[in-house]
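Q: How do we represent a protein-ligand complex in a form that can be generated token by token?
A: Start from the inputs.
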Amino acid sequence: MIFCPKCGSLLMPKKEKNTTVLSCKCGYTNKKESFAAIKETMVNDSRKIEIVGNEEEKTLPLTEGECGRCGHKKAYYWTVQTRASDEPETKFLKCQKCAHTWRDYA
Ligand SMILES: [Zn+2]
Ligand SMILES: [Zn+2]
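Then emit the structure tokens for the protein with zinc ion bound:
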């Protein structure tokens, strides 16, 4: 899963010309993730989107954070500035072990 760096919403694949890009309802488009990085498969009539070959998380910093799914205590994190600039940044964490992603409201 990839989140919008502007508003923190989940990016959705969108067909654009002859390629598929990840875009957000706020207007943000991730041009970096090309068609090759998105795998679309049909599973029981529902569309399953997988991001493959995403190198980005390897460069994300690690922090202390307990995964709600597997209990692992290290997670990658990044922050997103929400709408108003006077609001605090929203922190996202992604489990180092199982890739479970969640918002940190602390
Ligand atoms: Zn957005
Ligand atoms: Zn986990």
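The beta strands are 12-16, 19-23, 29-30, 38-43, 46-51, 62-64, 74-80, 90-95, 101-104. The pocket of zinc ion (ligand 2) is lined by residues 67, 69-70, 72, 95, 97-98, 100 (CB under 6 Å).
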